[in-house]
C-alpha cells in the first residue's frame, strides 16, 4: 500500500514546487535603445517607496530596496529579455521568497563592453563613462520608469526599458582650477583600447604672474572627483535651505558648512603668507571601480606606473611643478588613505611623504573583521557547536547594522560573480587578486558562502599586504621611508579599519636601522574617516585635507629639500 503512494506523493511535491515559481517576467526594450546593446547585466529592483526611483535605494542597511540580477550576452535586436526566476537577490535571495504586495518596480541594464587585453584574456566589463563607475548613474545604461505593481507569485509582469542615462557634462576651467586628460600608453597597451587618465588641478595664487616659479605637488587621493572639491571663490549661497539634514553626521545645515569651509580655504589660498603649491585630484576610474587604487594590478593593469610616470610628469611639465620626488606629497582618506600609503611604499623614491587617513585594510590579518590567512570563512566565525556572522559596519557605540555577508551578497546581486558590481569588496578583489583562467579576478572567497581560498590569500600577502611588505623589505625599504609615513584612524572606525592600523603600528614602532620616524594617531570614539585632528569633529576635519598636513610638510622640506629650494612661503614658524 505505501509503495503505491510514492509516485503519487512525488507528483504532489513536483506540482507544489512548480506552483511556487513566479510568473514570467518579461522586459521589452525600446527599439531606439537596442542598437548598442549586446551584453550586460539586467537588474530587477523592488521598492516600497513610491516617491523615488528604486535604483537609488540599494544599500547595506535595513532600509535597502530589493534587487535581483542576471547576466545576458549576445542580445538580438527585437527580442524580449525574460528574467530568470532563479537569479540571486539581495537582501531576499530568491524571487520565490519575495512577499506578495504592492511594489514600485524598475528594470535596469548595466551594459558590458568587450576588452581584449594584452595578457591574452578577453573580458566583458562595464566601462566607466565619465561618471566614476557608478552603475545607477552611468551614461549609456538604460532603464524603465518605475511602475507600481501588485506582485503575485503566480502572475507575470511586463516592463519596458525606454530611458537612457545622458552623457556627463565636463567641468569648465576657471582661474584657479584646470582640468586635464591624457591618453595613457601603458594602460592602452594593457586594455587593448585607448585608456585615459585625468586630473583636476588647483593652481597657486600668483601662478600667471610668476612664470619662473616652480611649485611642490600635493596629490590628494580618493574616490572619483567630478571636479575639484572644497574650493569656492564666493561666500555660501544665502538661499541655501536651513533644514537640510546630514544623516551621516546627525546635523542640520551641512551644505552651508561645506560651502563656508570651501570659501575659507579660498581665502587662505590667496592670502600673501599662505604656502604656494599645486594640488591635484586624480581621475582614474576603470571597468571595475571609481578608481584604480593607484597600483599595478593583474586585473586592472599598470595604473601605478601610469600615474607616477605618465600623468604626474605631464602635470608638472604643464603647470611648473618642481618635478622631483622630494617635492611630491601624498594624502587622502579611506580608499585614498590606502593609496597614499601604497604609492609611498611601492614608489619610495618618487614621493616625500604620505598622510594616510582611515586607510582601507593595510594589514590583511585585519581585512575589516576577517583574517584572510587564518580564518576559513569570511562570513562566519565558527566553533564546534555554533557559528556567528562577522560584523561589517558599526557606529561609534559599536552597534552593528550590516554584516560582511550582507555587504558581499549585495555586490553579488548587483554585479554577479565576476567582480563587476563596482563596489568595495569587488574592487579589493580586482586589485589584489591574480587573474583566473577566465580572465576575471580570482575570488579571495566564494561570494555566496564566504569560504576563503588560501592560495589567493597568499598572493594577496606577497603583493598587496602593505604592513607585511614593509616588514619583509624593511632592510632595503626602511631608509627610503624614514620620516615619510603618517597614519590616522578613528578607534571606532565604522568598517573596523583601525584594527589593521594597530597591527601596522606595532611593526612600525618596532623598526630599527632606521626607526620609521613617522606618526600613527587615533581619534577617540571617532568613526570613519578620522584624519588626524583631535580638536575638530569629523564633519569639519574631513573638509580640511588640503591644509591640515602643511606643518609636517614644512618639517619634511627643512630636512630633505635641496639647499637651493626657495623656502619663501614655507618658513617654519613653530
From TrEMBL:
Q: Which InterPro entries match?
A: AB_hydrolase_fold (IPR029058), Mycobacterial_A85_antigen (IPR050583)
TM spans, by residue?
none
Q: State the name under which the record lists this protein.
A: Esterase
Q: What is the scientific name of the source organism?
A: Algoriphagus boseongensis
